[in-house]
Every structure is written in structure tokens, then in C-alpha cells.
Design a protein that fits this description.
The chain is built from eight helices and twelve strands. The protein has 280 residues and is an alpha+beta fold. Strands 5, 6, 7, 8, 9, 10, 11 and 12 form an eight-stranded mixed sheet that branches. It has a four-stranded antiparallel sheet with strand order 1-2-3-4, with helices on one face. The N terminus is likely disordered.
Length: 280
């Protein structure tokens, strides 16, 4: 018996067909005609990146300055005047665990993500997504409004510097410097193309290590579909809204993650957990 699903994604280099299928009791993933089910993600991850827990004031300061660069300067989603010290911070940061992604060859801070972890006594709204999402739009028993505080968290404030979001020749240089200061090559991206995915796994790993039973994220539905092909099954818990593009609240439990995660991503999760110094 063979079951399959597929989606098409495009880039300026062409259009790629992504398929995921069960065949002979084995889950296989195809990018175009290439079977990438057994792709080694750990070796290129170790070659190009390191993810650290931002557990010191100095590391958290680097996270906040990176977020300022991305959210205020590059994307224009936040008003720079609100953050005169060049650090993008909000009311959820104090109760969050922060992760910092470092590009090994250059030593540059490449990205960041946080896991918001509300405690039993946290005031409402206890998650960032609840600050801009109408509770009436939740349509699942897995809604955070129906869960006990302290058992869940939210993956939030994922940020990648522009050099890591675009290919060379397709990016602006908001710091005023040219690409000679940072040579992010196509070979780098070809070797480890799942940079944002690594950050999602980092936040999920932290949640697991904290003993959380589930994690939420506000994301584009198409991103959730692409994560699905890797075995990361985020389930929607509410209707999509327009918030910097189409966004919907999604949920993943510990059981869902380990039940469906493909071997390459499971190996990557374990490598990230080792870098973070946590056990899952």
C-alpha cells in the first residue's frame, strides 16, 4: 500500500516538487526526484552552525540586538524609536528561554528564537499569540486557553539575519556594508538548507527538557505544511488571521513530535540538544 501527499514550492532557481509517502512500511521524503529521507543533516549543521542557550546577560544582549536588527531595521515590523538602546525586548522575555544561532565560519550571530514559558501564576495574556489573536477563533480542544499553565510554552520571536534568509545578490545591506564582510555562499545553503528548522527544533528541544507537554507557535499555514513533510506535525488550533501575512496558531505535543519525526530530523534534534546541554 502506498499513501502519498505532495506540495510544490518555487524559488528563483526553479520549481520543486516535494512528496512524502509511506511505502512498504517506510516513510520517504522526495525533493523533486531525489529521495532525501536519509539525508545527513548533522554533519553540515556541525560544520556551519552552533546553537547556544542564551543563559548569560551577554548572550541575551546579543539575542535582543539581533532581533532589533531583524525586526526593526530589516523587516520594519517594529518601531526603532521604541528601542533606543538597540535591543528589541518585550514583556515576555523575562520568562523566556532564549537560543542563539552562531555561524561557525564567520563567528557571526545568525539567528535567535525563544521559548516563552508561562508559569501557573503568569498574568494574562500568558503567551504572545494571545495578545493579537481573538479567542473566539480557537476551534480545538488543544487551545492554550484549555490547558494548565506551566505545562506549555510558545515558540516565538524567531529571527534570522537577512544574509541567511536570502541568496547572495538578492539581499539589501541595511548596515551599509557590502557582501565582502560576510560571504554566505550557495554551497553553505545547499549543505545545510534548514536553518529556520534548526531554530524550531532548538525551541522544541528546550520545551521538552523543561518537561512541557506541548508547545504553540503562530506561523504561516504553508510553513506548517513544509514542516509536516519532515515529520514535524504541528496541528492548527484556530483559524488563520492576517498578521504580517496569513498566520494561524499551531500546536505540537511531545508525543506528536517523537511519533512522526523522521530519522534525519531526530538525529538533528539530538545534535542540537547536545549543543544546548539539555536532555530530552
Amino acid at each position: 500500500m502506498l499513501l502519498q501527499s505532495a506540495s510544490t514550492t518555487s524559488s528563483r532557481l526553479g520549481v520543486f516538487r516535494v512528496k512524502a509517502m509511506w511505502s512498504g512500511g517506510t516513510f520517504r521524503i522526495f525533493l523533486g526526484n531525489a529521495d532525501v529521507s536519509d539525508i545527513d543533516l548533522v554533519t553540515p549543521y556541525h560544520e556551519y552552525f552552533n546553537i547556544k542557550l542564551a543563559d548569560t546577560d551577554e548572550l541575551r544582549d546579543r539575542v535582543f540586538r539581533l532581533r532589533y536588527d531583524v525586526y526593526c531595521r530589516e523587516l520594519g515590523w517594529e518601531d526603532p524609536a521604541v528601542f533606543p538602546d538597540g535591543r528589541e525586548i518585550d514583556e515576555f522575555d523575562e520568562t523566556s528561554i532564549h537560543c542563539l544561532l552562531i555561524h561557525r565560519p564567520s563567528g557571526r550571530d545568525a539567528g535567535a528564537v525563544r521559548l516563552v514559558r508561562p508559569g501557573p501564576e503568569s498574568p494574562e495574556p500568558c503567551l504572545p499569540l494571545l495578545t493579537h489573536y481573538d479567542p473566539a477563533l480557537f476551534n480545538s480542544d488543544q487551545s492554550p486557553l484549555k490547558q494548565l499553565k506551566g505545562c506549555f510554552g510558545e515558540i516565538s520571536r524567531l529571527a534570522l539575519r537577512e544574509q541567511f534568509r536570502r541568496r547572495p545578490g538578492e539581499r539589501d545591506t541595511p548596515d551599509g556594508h557590502g557582501p565582502e564582510l560576510f560571504d554566505w555562499t550557495l554551497d553553505d545553503r545547499r549543505r545545510f538548507p534548514h536553518i529556520a528548522l534548526g531554530l524550531y527544533l532548538a525551541a522544541a528541544t528546550v520545551g521538552l527538557a523543561e518537561g512541557m507537554t506541548s508547545v504553540y507557535a503562530m506561523m504561516e499555514p504553508r510553513l506548517a505544511r513544509h514542516l509536516h513533510f519532515g515529520g514535524i506535525y504541528f496541528e492548527p488550533v484556530g483559524e488563520a488571521i492576517e498578521f504580517r501575512g496569513a498566520r494561524a496558531p499551531f500546536h505540537i505535543s511531545r508525543a506528536m513530535l517523537f511519533k512522526n519525526l523522521t530519522p534525519p530530523l531526530l538525529a538533528l534534534l539530538e545534535a542540537i540538544a547536545e549543543d544546548l546541554g539539555v536532555q530530552v
